[in-house]
Structures are given as C-alpha cells and as structure tokens.
UniProtKB/TrEMBL annotation:
Its EC number is 3.6.3.-. This is Putative multidrug export ATP-binding/permease protein. Residues 381-615 form the ABC transporter domain. Residues 1-36 are annotated as: Disordered.
Length: 621
C-alpha cells in the first residue's frame, strides 16, 4: 500500500496546471483550419461520390444529351433562313415544317432531359450531404477528449452546418452551371468551326483572355473564401459559447462586453463577405468586356463577309446565336466559381477535421479481461512507470508506480492542480500516459476494446451532464437494456428515488436541455444512478459529490458503503468528509503522491493530510 513516487514536497511551489494549456499562436487548434494533407480534399469528394457513381454517370449523360438538344436550335435557324424560307417561297412547305417539328422535338427533349437531370442530381446531392454530416458527427464522437478540449464545439457546429451548406450550394447549383458552360463551350466551338472556320477560330482564341481572368479570380477568391469560412466559424463559436454560459453572463453582467466582442466578429465576417463579392464583381466586369468585344468584332466581320458574298446570311445568324450562347454562360460561370471557392474552402476544413486521428486509438488486436476472481466485482488497477504531459504543456505527472488492489476504495486528495483529475482520466483512458502503462487485472488499457473498457471502468465527473429526455432515459444510459425496475432500484440505492417520484411525471419527466429542469445536486444524483446501473468493476468519482448539499452528500455516502462494497473505486475528494468511505488515502502535491495510507494512519500522523483534516474539523466548529 505504498508507492515509489512518494517524495518530500517543497513548501512553496506553484501549482501545476491540471488541464491542457491554452493553445499558442502556432498551435493549429488555435486556428480555424486544421492541417489538411495534400490530396485529402479530392480523396474525400471521391469517397463521397464513389458509392453513387452509376447515378453520377446517369446525371452526366442527361446533361450531355440535354445540351445537345439545346444547341440544335441555332442550326435549325440557319437551315430555315438559307434553305427552308427559299423553299417556302417556291411553295415547298416540307423543309419549314421539318424545321418546326425539329425545333419542338429539341425543346421537348431538352425539357425531359432537364427534368431527369434535376431528379437524379437532387438524389445524389442529398445522399452526399447526408453521408458527409453523418461522417462529421461520427468522427467527432470518435476523437479523443484532448481534441475536444482544444477544438471548440462551435467550430464543429460550423463544419457540420455552414461548411456542409456551402457544399450543398455547389452540388445543387454551381456544378450544373460548370457542366453547362463546359458542354456549351465544346458544342458551340465545334459548331462554329463547322459552320465557318474563321469565325470559329476567333471564338476559340477569345477563350485565352477569359482563361487568364478565371485563374486570377480563383487565386484571389481561394484566399478570400478561406478567410470568410474562418470568420463565420468565429461568429458561431462566440454565439454558442455565450448561450451555453448564459447564466454567468447574466450573473456577471457580461452582456455589453459580449455585444462588443460579437460585433467585432460580425463586422469581420461582413468584410470578408464584401471581399468575396468584390472579387466576383471584378471577374464579371472583365469577362463581359472580353465577351462583348469579341461579339462586336465577329458580328462586324461577319456582316462585311455577307455583304461581300463570302458568307451566307443564315450561317451569320446561327453564328451570332451561338456566340451569344457561348458568352452568356461566362457570366454564370462566376456564380459557379463563387460557389466552388466557398465549397472548396469548406471542404478543406471538413477534410482537415476528418483527417484528425484519435490520440487514444482503438486496440488493433484487443485482449479480453480475465474472468473476475471470486464473488468480488472489483479489478486490480496498476500504474506501472507512468508519467504524463499534455501536448503543449509541461509534465503534469512525473514518473510513479501505484497499485490499487481489487475491491479497494481509494480517496485522492490534494490542492487544485495537484494532478488528481489527470490520474483519474488516465484510469478512464481519456488520455494515454506519455510513458509507462495502466493495467486492469494485468491487461494494458491500450489493449482493451473500447466497449469492454467502458463497461469495466465508469467515471462520474464533477459536472453532471444530462441529455434531453426523461429521467429514466438518462439513468438507462448506464445500461440501455435495463428494465424499469432496475432503473428504479439504482435510483433508490443512490437516494434519488424520492425526488424523482416528486417530479411532475416521475421517472418520465423530461429534464430538458442539459437537465435544466432539475437542480445541480439532483442532476448529480441522476448521474450517480446512471453509473451504478452500469455495474462497473472500477468506479471513478471525480469530485462527484461537490454539487450536493450536506443532507444529499450524507445520503450518497450511506449508499456508497453498500454500492462500492467489493468494487474498486477511486474517489477524487474535494470535501474531506468524502474520505470517510475510503479504505486508503493518497495525498497528491504537484503531480506526486506524497502520502499514502489509511485515513486513520494519516490523521494520526503529522503530514499534509493531518493538517488538512484538522483544518476541516475546525471549520465545522
């Protein structure tokens, strides 16, 4: 019952910070963007479309045929002017009727194909967005606790809402515009070259300045839309943070300060939106200047050639229609580029999030826990050569060894920042040690399958979190297949049955968001009942009685004598009254275990715990 880490603690030394350090300016978690490997964005998009490749090909075929039907119009006009009209004057009505029927068939085919395209593309779009949101949600849940300590929930919300919405706009509108522009350009250029090599060549050469404009726009817009995505994420983060902390905001009159901070973030987002619109305006003005100049030049040249007899009037008319159709989509291409750059920036951020891997990975070849020995449900816990440091901070727990026999209840006490909660989080495997191993009945926690670990080790934290739903549903989280009778028995064992029965609908009372319908102490009792229903071999209580009043704490302590009997328990004690239920006490200072013994032994001594206990006893007088 001793540890090799016991050491004399200096009388004056600053407390070590127990939680992760605040990210530095160079820390990627301090920024909205996470590192995204080269090619990750394209790989993500391909993986989203791969299960739907047949539908995607059907969509492309519909658009290909639809554009062919649309571009048949000018050819029919040219044939009508040069052949059908002269034939009509000669009382031959067949060519003109054929043109009219052909035009109607082209229009009908175009409409039918467009309808099929919209139906199929909408199905692909919704399936892709459904898949992507699901991936973000599942991946965010799978990431380790240290990631969520550093990457705010507001940014995660922004990834799953604003950034996914940007991709929706691209898939629903922008992508169609791009394909239309590409197909129209190919069809029309080919038709112009077929109708007249000179006009077709001039039209093709006009794409050179347009291509330069597009590349300049893309280069500037990529930066602007990345900054815009970061700006809206900051707005969402501030909004979510304020609403989650509305009680301290009101209590400490932070409304004006929050308004001022939110206004700064909101104006920054407004400026980034303005920058995006300005870039698009520059592109539209430049593209229209090129297009109108090219159209005017070709019309004048074509008119001169018609007058000179080297070009047919119908061919000129068809060429003018084709040219207008060629350059009109160029303006709409700006809308696609607008959607594309916004979606590309968003997709990069999503790909960066999905590329993050848990710092506490799943075991590649899980080992089972050995069967429990005898009738005791507890398991032995061993910290073997363990040390721990946060990713950007100093060492929190210097190297130590600790053994907790099966069935023993250990209370861990110490000042704030002593490392108590970090020790508990290592046992719950919210973090992996920087060095050494944490063993459960001789099995490294890193070799256990996560479901088995969560069944064997349960932690009740200081901040009791309840989900929206009934009291019974929140207790049943500990064991979803539990019967109503088992749920009520767990509540009775912990002393929560009476207050639950007094609620308007008893166990069927909806606790609402974050359990706001019941008090903090009652939420803690519900979380106790949840943990006890899970029936773990190891139970960790991280200052879990700190929200309870004295009568509630006494009721819980009485229940604990029965509930913890035979189980291994680690109790992070904020109040020394909690230590009364422990078989053993560990005193921590600056990450080191400086005292280890039974409560009676330590109280009788002259160490740190004896001083704390005397001060606590005097405070009760």
């Amino acid at each position: 019952m001793t540890t090799t880490a016991a050491a004399k603690t200096p009388q004056t030394a600053p407390d070590l910070v127990e939680e992760p350090d605040i990210p530095t300016e160079g820390d990627p978690f301090d920024q909205d963007d996470l590192p995204t490997p080269k090619g990750a964005t394209g790989a993500l998009l391909r993986s989203l479309l791969a299960p739907r490749r047949r539908t995607v090909w059907a969509v492309a075929l519909c658009l290909l045929l639809q554009q062919a039907a649309v571009q048949a119009g000018p050819l029919l006009v040219a044939y009508a002017i040069d052949h059908a009209v002269p034939a009509f004057r000669a009382h031959d009505y067949g060519p003109l009727i054929a043109v009219a029927v052909g035009y109607l068939l082209a229009a009908a085919s175009s409409s039918a194909l467009l309808y099929a395209f919209v139906r199929l593309s909408a199905r692909v779009n919704q399936d892709v967005l459904l898949d992507l949101r699901g991936r973000i949600f599942r991946h965010a849940q799978a990431l380790s606790v240290d990631f969520h300590d550093r990457y705010t929930s507001g940014r995660l919300i922004s990834r799953a809402t604003t950034d996914v919405e940007s991709l929706r706009e691209l898939l629903a509108e922008g992508l169609q515009e791009l394909i239309n522009v590409i197909l129209a350009s190919v069809y029309i250029t080919a038709m112009l070259l077929w109708l007249d090599l000179g006009i077709g060549s001039v039209a093709a050469l006009s794409f050179v300045p347009l291509y330069v404009l597009i590349q300049l726009y893309r280069r500037r817009a990529a930066r602007v839309y990345g900054e815009r995505s970061t700006a809206i994420a900051a707005v969402i983060v501030k909004f979510a943070e304020t609403m989650n902390g509305i009680r301290p905001v009101r209590a400490f009159r932070r409304e004006r300060a929050n308004d001022e901070h939110f206004a700064v973030l909101n104006h920054r987002h407004e400026r980034r939106n303005g920058d995006a619109l300005l870039e698009m305006a520059r592109y539209v003005v430049g593209s229209r200047l090129v297009a109108n100049t090219a159209v005017a030049g070709m019309v004048l040249w074509g008119a001169y050639r018609v007058a000179a007899g080297s070009l047919e009037l119908g061919v000129l008319a068809a060429a003018v229609l084709f040219i207008r159709r060629l350059y009109d989509p160029i303006d709409r291409l700006a809308m696609f580029l607008n959607s594309y750059e916004s979606a590309a920036a968003s997709l990069r951020k999503i790909a960066g999030l999905l590329h993050q891997t848990p710092s506490v990975p799943e075991a590649e070849s899980p080992r089972p826990l050995p069967p429990l020995a005898g009738d005791r449900p507890g398991r032995e816990v061993v910290f073997e050569g363990v040390s721990f440091r946060y990713r950007t901070g100093g060492e929190v727990l210097p190297r130590f060894d600790l053994t907790i026999p099966a069935g023993q209840t250990v209370a861990v006490v110490g000042s704030t920042g002593a490392g108590k909660s970090t020790l508990a989080k290592l046992l719950a495997r919210f973090y992996d040690p920087s060095a050494g191993r944490v063993l459960l009945d001789g099995v490294d926690l890193r070799d256990l399958a996560v479901p088995e670990l969560r069944r064997g080790v349960v932690m009740v934290t200081q901040e009791a979190f309840l989900f929206s739903g009934t009291v019974a549903e929140n207790i049943a989280i500990g064991r979803p297949d539990a019967t109503r009778e088992e749920i009520e028995q767990a509540a009775k064992a912990i002393g929560a049955h009476d207050f639950i029965s007094a609620l308007p609908d008893g166990y069927d009372t909806d606790v609402r968001k974050r359990g706001g319908r019941i008090s903090a102490g009652q939420r803690q009792l519900v979380s106790f009942a949840r943990a006890l229903l899970a029936d773990p071999a190891v139970l960790i209580l991280d200052e879990a009685t700190s929200s309870l009043d004295i009568p509630g704490e006494r009721a819980v302590q009485r229940a604990m004598h029965t509930v913890l009997s035979g189980r291994t328990a680690v109790v992070i004690a904020h109040r020394l009254s909690t230590v009364e239920i422990a078989d053993r006490v560990l005193v921590m200072e600056h990450g080191r275990i400086v005292e280890d013994g039974t409560p009676a032994e330590l109280i009788a001594g002259e160490g740190r715990f004896a001083d704390l206990h005397r001060a606590w006893r005097n405070s009760l007088v």
